[in-house]
Design goal:
The chain is about 30% helix and about 30% strand. The chain has about 400 residues and is an alpha/beta fold. Bound molecules: cytidine-5'-triphosphate and the ligand C[C@](O)(CO)[C@H](O)COP(=O)(O)O.
């Protein structure tokens, strides 16, 4: 008998607004978990299974560059398609794109669930031998309260027959495609595909879900996801400091904190000589015991001539993420007589935050003069001092 083709739709077209409540600028599916973006993890969970025929990702129209920068390359990964305004609409776009390939079975997966296990996926597929649809679910273990105003309890519900739904949800392709097409004509939205199947009269089974198969929805879910990944590794806080000097030379602007500030001189250096970013880079590298900026970007290497120092800062941030850590906060003080820094601080916080994928509220940029003393007072150069606090898995 011919083996059934199994296609996967990963819906990643959401904006992740709830998860961005911590000020993060990256949509949740593009944020890193221990150095690997959530969406890359989700897709990889399926590409790692040899019996999966193809994986199709449904992305937001504004995220094409972000998706491309994941750099995912696999013969079984189809070019992404664009989703719609709701999860339901995005799934339908995925189903429409797969229809010409005539899949036997389709698994529909939230991009925001990076921990679907081979066991759960296999159980969903196995249940499709006897049912039209199947989903992983976990029996509810908390007592369930109903409230009319979100505050005062109205009733306590019987939880004995309740379960919390997860993904992937699996279906026979033709049946779920036709159910979704019909559901799209209704004024209401369904929150999962199993509900659409139920509404269409299909028989849907539940298989045992997995406690770690969480949906990243709120900012604190990232911390939980990191805990899952590190096998509950003990995290510890590390502190690093950085210090940098640069001399002035004739010019018309300085780069500071990733921002170009017009000035009657420029800072002399191999790269763009951004003292603030160099001090921050060294502070992060110091916190994780990774040497200093010169080790990673030697001045003797011509490719860094005139380079934007955001490259150095991003490299340090990437090393933290790869080690399963996260930057808690950064603090930099720039010491100079001129130019005046205060009005540029918000722009610097924005550039640094975007470079490292952290909220600007975690970054302090301060400035002071040297009261006209010494080489800074004579405007021969400037200095920056930084400290970084980083949370890292304990390894010793
Ligand atoms: N228009 C949409 C909305 C959601 N999704 C996807 O559906 C999954 C589950 O949705 P949810 O967790 O609610 O994600 P978001 O809609 O992105 O979150 P929020 O509601 O906080 O903005 C996510 O992988 C999300 O990317 C989608 O493909 N298209
Ligand atoms: C499909 C789902 O993951 C099942 O739990 C969930 O319903 C999707 O979340 P949303 O917030 O309703 O989009």
């Amino acid at each position: 008998m011919r083996q059934k083709s199994i296609f996967v739709i990963v819906v990643a077209a959401g904006k992740g607004e709830r998860a961005s409540a911590d000020g993060s600028t990256d949509p949740k599916q593009y944020r890193s978990l221990a150095g690997i973006p959530v969406l890359a993890r989700t897709i990889r969970a399926f590409l790692d299974l040899p019996y999966v025929t193809n994986v199709l990702t449904v992305i937001h129209p504004d995220h094409a560059d972000r998706y491309a920068s994941l750099g995912l390359a696999d013969d079984r990964l189809l070019p992404p398609v664009t989703g719609g305004a709701s999860r339901q609409a995005s799934v339908l776009e995925g189903l429409k794109a797969l229809a010409p390939l005539r899949p036997d079975l389709v698994l529909i997966q939230d991009a925001a669930r990076p921990f679907a296990t081979p066991q759960v996926i296999g159980d969903v597929i196995a249940a499709l031998d006897q049912y039209d649809g199947a989903l992983p679910a976990l029996p509810v273990t908390d007592t369930i309260k109903r409230s009319l105003d979100g505050r005062q309890v109205a009733t306590t519900e019987d939880r004995s027959q309740l379960a919390a739904a997860q993904t992937p949800q699996g279906f026979r392709f033709g049946q779920i495609f036709s159910a979704h097409m019909r559901a799209a004509t209704l004024p209401r939205q369904f929150t999962d595909d199993a509900e659409i199947a139920e509404w269409a009269g299909l028989r849907v089974a539940m298989v045992m879900g997995d406690r770690d198969n969480i949906k990243i929805t709120h900012p604190q879910d990232f911390a939980q996801a990191e805990r899952i990944l590190s096998g509950d590794a003990i995290m510890e806080t590390r502190i690093g400091s950085g210090f940098d000097f640069h001399q002035f030379e004739p010019g018309d602007a300085v780069w500071l904190g990733g921002v170009r500030i017009p000035h009657h001189a420029k800072l002399k250096g191999h790269s763009d000589a951004d003292v603030a970013l160099h001090a921050l880079t060294d502070a992060i590298l110091g916190a994780i015991g990774e040497g200093d900026i010169g080790v990673h970007f030697p001045p003797s290497d011509m490719q860094w001539q005139g380079a934007a120092s955001t490259i150095f800062l991003k490299h340090a941030g990437d090393l933290v993420a790869k080690a399963g850590g996260r930057i808690v906060n950064l603090d930099v003080t720039i010491v100079c007589e001129a130019p005046k820094i205060a009005s540029h601080v918000p722009a610097m916080q924005r550039v640094i935050g975007e470079t490292l994928g952290i909220a600007p509220t975690r970054i302090a940029v301060k400035a002071t003069t040297s009261e006209k003393l010494g080489f800074i007072g004579r405007e021969e150069g400037m200095v920056a001092m930084a400290s970084a606090s980083v949370e890292m898995p304990r390894v010793d």
